[in-house]
């Protein structure tokens, strides 16, 4: 119980701190600093009253120390702490009892909890609504606000927005959420501006907008994470500012980032939230199983959340939000990081659960918005631009029809444009990205479309068109035009795309320039400007990288100035306090020799015989002791025997008296308890008072005091302060300083930022030496401040006679040795705060215990064992530092005392001490400790560099040559052979040909950016997990290869192996002909990598990060500004460039990571889901940049869950299922191979007449007899789809039929296109669900 209670104070700084590092540092320092007042308390303990001692226990650590002290005393008395002696003093001289300590610890726990509750309520931090400081006096806080709920009629009669961009509100629906003039500001930035919006029960409302438009802020206000600056919000009729508790009972929220507990499994998460949401105990197991089964997570139910893939974490967050019967569900980009199959599962689930619920959802997938959204609202820069159904928005923003063409490599864009212009003079080029070419055809030329499509079909091969399709206005066009309109602040009109007559098809357009009117300056023209930059190599690159790493480290300290200031302040205060208490000279007070100093004691006495004198003495004894509040107890018989036999006297008696009358004399004997230090003098004082009262009357008294003599004028330092005391005073401060150097190191390693820096080409030596240099500079500043403390405290040994130079040398050698040790220690931790706290403990206690060990060994007789122990201790920098400081101080003090005119006799001032050379190797020298510090610093640094360089090879050797071979031996002759046979039987011919091609290539191919053969990754768990299974591939220059697959298919694991983040179980990986297992350093400098996570350095701005990575890549200093500005423009990050990356939205973080990966002259770039969280505008800019990089010669390997992205970018792609390639080839090859089928999708308005749906089916069956029609997602807004064989497609006829159907059946939208990659992907995913699991069971 005792150790647990004092930990409560560490919660207090956590509430006010803005970062985990500051919180950990403040809590750590506060906790340890609160122990030090006990040092002063113990020195003055005898002078303190009981009240002051108890009051000091308001510090729980002081209460803990006093309690342990009392407990030890009771144990030494062989009594121990028991219930019957909790209120009994541990000894006669102390009136503090153990019961007080327990009571004060309980009181401390209550007080700290109360303060924590108050601070958290008034200052909730970044998230939460603060209460006024007097909230505890408010009736509403304890008993709730008066429940003022708007009635359904009021929620129906919502304000109508008459703006033509806003569809009329549905009159018969009840608004589950009503937002009126909502406004939110963060400082000077307006995040949400005068937002008014109604969200209705039974509907799904989609909120769209670019990254940073204010969507997440709006959702956070609705969920109660932020208070609004002004405005009103009603949820289910309750005002969010007054009834948030009532609102939260029926509200579920899935934030943009997954907020999961790393140490809980999937099922434990759901159990926890089921209990929180008060689900019935009999219901939630079935509900949990249903949701897990729906999301295909049943087999992951016992997996820790930290082990899940990004998509699986997202699924778990959505399940938590949908668990229970919440009437309002708010989902912030729920489908990001999810594969298409999982997205469709979410669509179905939301459609099933939207009845009687109000669902608000944000997304960057326009197809998702169109399929799910009953109403769609678009925000631009915090302002709501439009709201209505997808049909309404298309009518407002639509520009006409779209024709999308997929180009072959030899496609002549000018000829295609000329043909379209000949039919449609006002046709405009909408987009030309990757292999995709799209045009907008005005509605007024609809009568010419049939002839255009017939001509395109006839000349398709000559023009180099692989396939083409047509559709009415898309939601993506609506989104882009809404933003364009908001930016231009013009009245609504079709966006003026330049017509083909006036467009100049430049070479840039042939290189896939995005000619969209959203941005005036094409991305390619800016990228072309940096194409001729020559990158630094050799020594200039080394210097540039060193500068970059040094600035990064310096910025960390500068931006975390609060942490540095806190550490410095605490170090100076604590060290000054400890040194002053060590050197403190004070006059000891006089102590009265009186029994009342010990509280109420028992005074036993015995009388044998009778005399007048004895009676008089007894009378005066009673008068004297009663005045002192002492208990006088008469004893019959021998007083000594009584005391020995009575335990109570042993504990509560200071003195005892015996009066014996023998003939003519009276013998007065007084006994004292020698456990009380002053009992002898006190007993004599009592006797003197009794005798004096007998002579002078009962009012007479004698006061006796004990006053220590002052020290000799020449010997005030008879026993000088020892060097070990100085070391103990410095130990805590130095531990705090040196341990802080692990913070950034651990953060960079755990967030993967360190790996990205290595991938960007930084030399290992540069990385660590720059960190070491900066940390030593910071350490030297702290040491200089400590010199000032020494001067202030009068510790002349370290500052007088230029000794500050010697002191600084000792300090810096200590820093040189301990900082690399902290770097090594940081590898043991996965949390920077944990590392900081535990390394502080290590440094502090290693100093203390090493000094104690040395003192104990020094006091005993020297032997070989003691010498060996000292040699072992010299491995610790703290021991070398402690011994150097201790001996240096002792040497100075001894020489100073011996040089006095009247030296103290307690020291032997022989020549051995007075002429000692402190820098000798002798018994009193420190040379060996200084040399040991220098040597150990070099050793730790070399060990660190060795770990970074050779550890990779050792890991690969261990897993490839030992573990994998043992695994094969165990599996040989059994199921492994069956597994290989099954794999070979199921392998696609294209994949087999690729493997043969890879195996036939020579071992070293310098002109091939990427080659891997038989790549395998096995996680040796129980059961064994084969994440990647024998895949082979070669990627050539200027190729963009797409790697598709479900969540958990092995894509990210493959990337981690190819970039050196994970070891390879078996197989070969070559980057530019260099093996990744043999020369990871050269490989890393030739690749770019954008991982699935966001490895950001939060203390830097976006511009600073890009400058840092530009230097790491070797961009010359004169070109860095232009180079960085180009990438900021290409990712549309100019407005965010000077903001700290920790406040970036997820989409902006992805943009920044992608830009970092594309920088430099790398041969291969790996992009792991780069467009996750990006809005459509940002995605198109990304596609432009990737296309340009491919044209410049780089090979791009990309994973994505956006099939549209793969169609636009990838020249080849593979679909991965359970660690294996299922198909491989170009886009058109896969489409032709897996179905020369076209897809017709139509959206029918069935609100008024559902019979039209059946009539439309009959119409299509008649028009296309061979179609494989099926109803698709009728529940999704009346959308139906058909698969029509390619041989039946005649585009002219098709268009005329659909235009006829548009009139007959009130079609709101339709599109016709060749079957997409998404449908191929879905077919493989469905096959995977029913596939025989034989090979899995084998593994």
Automatic annotation (TrEMBL):
It comes from Equus przewalskii. Residues 177-406, 1010-1243 form the ABC transporter domain. It is found in: Membrane. The chain crosses the membrane at residues 22-42, 54-76, 96-119, 561-580, 724-743, 764-790, 810-829, 841-859, 926-946. It holds the Pfam family ABC_tran. CDD domains: ABC_subfamily_A. It comes from the Eukaryota. The gene is LOC103567621. This is Phospholipid-transporting ATPase ABCA3-like isoform X21. SUPFAM superfamilies: P-loop containing nucleoside triphosphate hydrolases (SSF52540). Keywords: ATP-binding, Membrane, Nucleotide-binding, Transmembrane, Transmembrane helix. PROSITE patterns: ABC_TRANSPORTER_1, ABC_TRANSPORTER_2. It is a multi-pass membrane protein.
């Amino acid at each position: 119980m005792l150790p647990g209670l004092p930990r409560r104070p560490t919660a207090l700084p956590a509430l006010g701190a803005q970062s985990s590092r500051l919180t950990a540092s403040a809590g750590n320092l506060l906790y340890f600093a609160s122990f030090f007042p006990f040092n002063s308390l113990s020195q003055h303990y005898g002078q303190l009253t009981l009240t002051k001692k108890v009051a000091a226990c308001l510090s729980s650590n002081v209460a803990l120390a006093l309690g342990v002290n009392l407990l030890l005393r009771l144990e030494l008395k062989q009594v121990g702490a028991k219930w019957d002696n909790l209120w009994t003093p541990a000894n006669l001289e102390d009136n503090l009892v153990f019961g007080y300590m327990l009571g004060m610890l309980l009181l401390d726990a209550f007080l700290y909890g109360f303060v924590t509750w108050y601070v958290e309520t008034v200052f909730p931090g970044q998230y939460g609504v603060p209460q006024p400081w007097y909230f505890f006096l408010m009736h509403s806080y304890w008993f709730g606000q008066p429940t003022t709920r708007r009635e359904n009629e009021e929620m129906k009669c919502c304000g109508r927005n008459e703006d033509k961009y806003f569809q009329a509100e549905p009159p018969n629906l009840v608004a589950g959420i009503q937002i009126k003039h909502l406004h939110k500001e963060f400082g000077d930035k307006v995040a949400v501006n005068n937002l008014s919006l109604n969200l209705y029960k039974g509907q799904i409302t989609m909120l769209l907008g670019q990254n940073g438009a204010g969507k997440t802020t709006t959702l956070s206000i609705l969920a109660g994470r932020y208070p609004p600056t002004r405005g009103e919000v009603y949820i289910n009729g309750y005002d969010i500012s007054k009834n948030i508790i009532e609102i939260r009972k029926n509200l579920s929220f899935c934030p943009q980032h997954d907020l999961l507990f790393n140490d809980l499994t999937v099922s434990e998460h759901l159990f926890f939230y089921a209990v929180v949401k008060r689900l019935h105990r009999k219901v939630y197991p079935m509900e949990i199983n249903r949701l897990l089964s729906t999301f295909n997570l049943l087999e992951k139910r016992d997996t820790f959340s930290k082990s899940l893939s990004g998509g699986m974490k997202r699924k778990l967050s959505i399940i938590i939000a949908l668990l229970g019967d919440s009437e309002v569900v708010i989902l912030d980009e729920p489908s990001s990081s999810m594969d298409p199959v999982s997205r469709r599962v979410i669509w179905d689930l939301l459609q099933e659960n939207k009845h009687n619920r109000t669902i608000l959802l944000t997304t960057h997938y326009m197809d998702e918005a169109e399929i799910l959204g009953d109403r769609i609202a678009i925000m631009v820069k915090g302002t709501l631009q439009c709201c209505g159904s997808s049909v309404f928005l298309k009518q407002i923003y639509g520009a006409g029809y779209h024709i999308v063409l997929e180009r072959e490599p030899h496609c002549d864009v000018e000829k295609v444009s000329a043909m379209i212009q000949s039919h449609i003079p006002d046709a405009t080029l909408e987009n030309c990205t990757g292999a995709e070419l799209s045009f907008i055809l005005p509605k007024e030329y609809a009568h010419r479309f049939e002839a255009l499509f017939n001509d395109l079909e006839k000349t398709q091969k000559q023009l180099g068109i692989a396939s083409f399709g047509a559709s009415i206005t898309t939601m993506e066009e609506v989104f882009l035009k809404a933003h364009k309109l908001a930016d231009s602040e013009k009245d609504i009109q079709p966006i003026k795309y330049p017509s083909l007559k006036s467009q100049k098809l430049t070479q840039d357009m042939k290189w896939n320039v995005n000619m969209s009117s959203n941005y005036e300056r094409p991305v390619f023209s800016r990228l072309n400007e940096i194409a001729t930059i020559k990158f630094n190599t050799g020594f200039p690159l080394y210097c540039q990288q060193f500068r970059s790493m040094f600035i990064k480290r310096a910025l960390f300290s500068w931006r975390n100035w609060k942490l540095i200031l806190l550490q410095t302040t605490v170090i100076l205060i604590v060290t000054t306090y400890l040194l002053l208490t060590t050197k403190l000279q004070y006059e000891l007070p006089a102590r009265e020799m009186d029994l009342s100093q010990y509280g109420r004691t028992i005074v036993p006495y015995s009388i044998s015989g009778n005399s007048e004198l004895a009676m008089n003495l007894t009378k005066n004894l009673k008068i004297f002791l009663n005045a002192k509040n002492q208990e006088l107890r008469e004893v019959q018989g021998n007083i000594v025997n009584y005391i020995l036999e009575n335990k109570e006297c042993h504990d509560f008696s200071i003195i005892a008296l015996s009066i014996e009358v023998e003939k003519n004399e009276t013998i007065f004997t007084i006994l004292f308890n020698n456990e009380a230090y002053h009992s002898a003098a006190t007993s004599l004082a009592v006797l003197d008072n009794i005798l004096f009262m007998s002579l002078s009357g009962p009012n007479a008294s004698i006061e006796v005091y004990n006053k220590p003599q002052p020290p000799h004028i020449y010997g005030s330092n008879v026993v000088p302060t020892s060097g070990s005391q100085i070391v103990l005073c410095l130990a805590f401060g130095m531990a705090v300083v040196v341990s802080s150097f692990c913070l950034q190191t651990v953060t960079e390693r755990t967030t993967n930022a360190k790996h990205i820096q290595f991938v960007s080409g930084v030399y290992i030596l540069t990385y660590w030496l720059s960190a070491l240099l900066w940390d030593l500079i910071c350490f030297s500043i702290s040491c200089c401040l400590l010199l000032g403390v020494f001067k202030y405290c009068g510790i002349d040994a370290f500052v007088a006679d230029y000794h500050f130079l010697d002191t600084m040398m000792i300090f810096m050698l200590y820093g040189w040795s301990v900082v690399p040790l902290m770097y090594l220690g940081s590898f043991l931790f996965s949390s920077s705060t944990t590392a900081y706290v535990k390394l502080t403990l290590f440094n502090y206690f290693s100093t203390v215990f090493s000094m104690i060990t040395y003192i104990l060994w020094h006091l005993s007789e020297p032997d070989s064992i003691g010498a060996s122990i000292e040699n072992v201790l010299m491995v610790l920098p703290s021991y070398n530092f402690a011994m150097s400081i201790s001996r240096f101080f002792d040497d100075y003090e001894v020489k100073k005392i011996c040089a006095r005119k009247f030296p103290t006799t307690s020291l032997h001032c022989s020549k051995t001490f007075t002429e000692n050379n402190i820098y000798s190797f002798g018994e009193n020298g420190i040379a060996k400790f200084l040399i040991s510090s220098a040597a150990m610093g070099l050793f730790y640094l070399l060990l660190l560099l060795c770990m970074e360089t050779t550890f990779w090879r050792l890991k690969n050797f261990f897993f490839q040559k030992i573990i994998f071979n043992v695994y094969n031996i165990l599996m040989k002759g059994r199921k492994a052979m069956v597994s290989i046979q099954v794999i070979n039987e199921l392998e696609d011919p294209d994949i087999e040909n690729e493997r043969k091609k890879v195996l036939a290539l020579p071992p070293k191919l310098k002109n091939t950016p990427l080659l891997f053969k038989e790549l395998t990754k096995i996680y040796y768990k129980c059961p064994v997990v084969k994440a990647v299974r024998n895949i082979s591939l070669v990627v050539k220059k200027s190729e963009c290869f797409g790697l598709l697959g479900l969540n958990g298919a092995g894509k990210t694991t493959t990337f981690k192996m190819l970039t050196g983040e994970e070891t390879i179980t078996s197989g070969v990986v070559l980057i530019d002909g260099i093996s990744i297992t043999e020369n990871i350093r050269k490989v890393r400098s030739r690749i770019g990598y954008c991982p699935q996570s966001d490895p950001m350095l939060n203390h830097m701005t976006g511009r600073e990060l890009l400058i840092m990575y530009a230097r790491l890549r070797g961009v010359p200093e004169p070109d860095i500004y232009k180079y960085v500005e180009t990438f900021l423009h290409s990712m549309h990050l100019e407005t965010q460039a000077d903001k700290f990356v920790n406040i970036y939205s997820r989409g902006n973080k992805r943009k920044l990571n992608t830009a970092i990966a594309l920088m430099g002259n790398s041969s291969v770039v790996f992009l792991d889901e780069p467009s996750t969280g990006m809005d459509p505008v940002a995605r198109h800019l990304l596609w432009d940049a990737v296309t340009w990089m491919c044209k410049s010669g780089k090979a791009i390997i990309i994973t994505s869950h956006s099939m549209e992205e793969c169609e636009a970018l990838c020249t080849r792609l593979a679909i991965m299922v359970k660690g294996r390639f299922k198909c491989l080839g170009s886009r058109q090859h896969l489409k032709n191979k897996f179905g020369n089928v076209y897809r017709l999708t139509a959206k029918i308005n069935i609100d008024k007449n559902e019979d039209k749906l059946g009539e439309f089916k009959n119409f299509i069956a008649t028009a296309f007899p061979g179609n494989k029609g099926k109803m698709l997602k009728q529940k999704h807004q009346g959308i139906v789809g058909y698969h029509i064989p390619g041989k039946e497609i005649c585009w002219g006829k098709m268009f005329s039929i659909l235009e006829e159907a548009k009139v007959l059946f009130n079609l709101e939208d339709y599109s016709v296109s060749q079957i997409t990659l998404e449908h191929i992907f879905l077919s493989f995913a469905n096959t995977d669900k029913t596939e025989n699991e034989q090979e899995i069971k084998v593994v």
